[in-house]
Design goal:
- Keywords: ATP-binding, Nucleotide-binding.
- The chain is an alpha/beta fold and 279 residues long.
- The chain contains ten helices and ten strands.
- The strands form two sheets. The chain has a six-stranded mixed sheet with strand order 6-7-8-3-9-10, sandwiched between helices. It has a four-stranded antiparallel sheet with strand order 2-1-4-5, covered by helices on one side.
- Helix 4 packs parallel to helix 6, helix 5 packs across helix 6 and helix 6 packs parallel to helix 7.
- The longest helix has 18 residues.
- The protein is globular.
- The chain starts with a strand and ends with a helix.
């Protein structure tokens, strides 16, 4: 079943200079996303892969309607939500939540863990303190934390704990889609594996679907069911099975694969330019 669908989504940023009343020059317009189409299916992890600046995060913001597309449509469960008002989008956004790349930078440093996770519930109109606290505790426990963390400030948490709180904040509204924007890039290898295992468990237990944004193809094969590869705002290749990345045919995808560090020195590839120096 299609949960979320992008139909020829395009975002063009106006490159005009000289202030608000300056004359617009169409040649200066900057296409950040160019006619992108794909679908996210139920209980699926879809990888969205590409280098920094290729349009991945802009695409995610359009799906959440935090950015208005210049062209194209966004469909949620078959319903076109592209032109929905802010008020009407509140209900849909409770079903689609974002997990940020750097959890610490997305927190108010003066807020405790309890208040950080309570904010989405307050915004949803849940005013009963006992109900909020019960849901917060249940969500914290689902990500491997507990009541002892409620009164802590973000700076008092480890990197792995900060990421778990970020995931808990996204889960507390009981969504069915999580958009994961480079969620592992700020974690070391050990914490990265723990976070992946946690998200795998949550996906199975809660029936979640993930749109996983990354530049690292080495994670895609481990974490995703399918993958799409973006470059310069457009999709260059779709990989129907992310665990068979070696079957990729596009030159850009092959370049990303070649950039993955080898696990052992004997597996390192020798650049032909180094083996045949011109000097």
């Amino acid at each position: 079943m299609k949960l979320l669908e992008a139909v020829e989504l395009t975002k063009i940023y106006d490159g005009q200079k000289g202030g608000l009343f300056a004359k617009r020059n169409p040649r200066q317009s900057l296409p950040a996303v160019n006619s992108v189409s794909f679908e996210l299916r139920q209980n699926e992890t879809l990888g969205l892969v590409g280098e920094s600046g290729c349009g991945k995060s802009t695409l995610a913001r359009m799906l959440l309607r935090l950015e208005q597309p210049s062209a194209g449509r966004v469909r949620y469960r078959g319903t076109d939500i592209t032109d929905w008002s802010f008020g009407r989008m509140r209900e849909v956004r409770s079903r689609m939540q974002l997990v940020f790349q750097n959890s610490l930078s997305s927190f108010n440093p003066a807020f405790t863990v309890e208040r950080i996770i309570a904010e989405p519930l307050r915004n949803a109109g849940i005013r009963n303190a006992a109900e909020r606290r019960a849901r917060i505790l249940h969500t914290l426990e689902s990500v491997g934390l507990g009541a002892s963390h409620l009164g802590r400030l973000p700076a008092e948490l480890s990197g792995g704990q900060q990421q778990r709180v970020g995931i808990a904040r996204a889960l507390v509204r009981k969504p069915e889609i999580l958009i994961l924007d480079e969620p592992f890039s700020s974690l070391d290898f050990g914490l990265r594996r723990q976070a992946m295992d946690l998200l795998d468990e949550l996906k199975k237990s809660l029936g979640l679907s993930y749109l996983f944004i990354t530049h690292d193809l080495s994670i895609v094969g481990r974490f995703c069911d399918r993958a799409i590869v973006m470059r310069h705002g457009g999709i260059v290749e779709e990989l129907p099975y992310a665990d068979s990345l070696e079957q990729a045919t596009h030159a850009y995808t092959r370049m990303l694969l070649d950039s993955i560090p080898a696990r052992h020195p004997r597996e390192r590839k020798i650049d032909s330019r180094l083996s045949n120096p011109s000097f």
